[in-house]
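dumping this here before i forget
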Amino acid sequence: MEKAKSRMRIHPAINHSVAGVLTTIPRIAGIVNVTPDSFSDGGRFVDCDIAIAHGHQLVLDGADLVDVGGESTRPGAQRVSAEEQLNRVLPVIEALVADGVAVSVDTTSAQVARVALEAGATMVNDVSAGEEDSGMLDMVAKAGAQICLMHKRGQPRDMQRHTCYEDVVGEVHAYLLQRARQFVAAGGAPENVYLDPGIGFAKELEANVRLIGSMSQLGGYGFKTYLGASRKTFIGQISGEKDASQRLGGSVAVALEAARQGVNVLRVHDVAQTRQALQVASALWLNR
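structure:
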């Protein structure tokens, strides 16, 4: 496989937060779920043309890349074969890449990831950190692509039964560092690694809040950071909002806190609102 094309990569600039002041705005990954059952927007973008149009709109709204997935990972979701994932995501990825859009693929399948990278995607977003498919880390490393390694326990159908931790921050960080080092040992470049604590994946409310509060610590280990918390259940638990699509305010609040802590990439549904909030917050913080 050819090395992933450098022109499509996320710029490697690192965000910095000095004394609570945001000096670099995080990059934004806009979400395109080509699935019938995702927790927030399942079924909205299963039509290929609609999904492609949504991807373009996300870029117009300010997304730096578009994260395309063909399998829901919400609690209780059923697994989807690699063949079906490719049927869903490949036409979308090909069309977006052809128009110059930077694309990542959200999958735990090395087969899906390989085909997506060959089609022009430059990043793999793997919620299993390469554990579900033993060939993932080696394949992505050899392709010269970027990878997001996320922490979770169990499978979507049962992960909320695995929420007990003695030290959630220490355990999650140790796991992610172990997976990152394995990727580097396979030949992957350290600068191509993003670490995601897996908000909502085998985590209860307190664990989610603590992990978000420790993102600056996670970014201090020599790898970049990635956070996907948009519209998630913990926001509803805090705010009382049961409808995931109505959790914009809480999602933006998380994005601002993540930015303050130097997170490199934010994965969000509401790109325009998140981008605007980050721009205004940056101006306010820099002029304190």
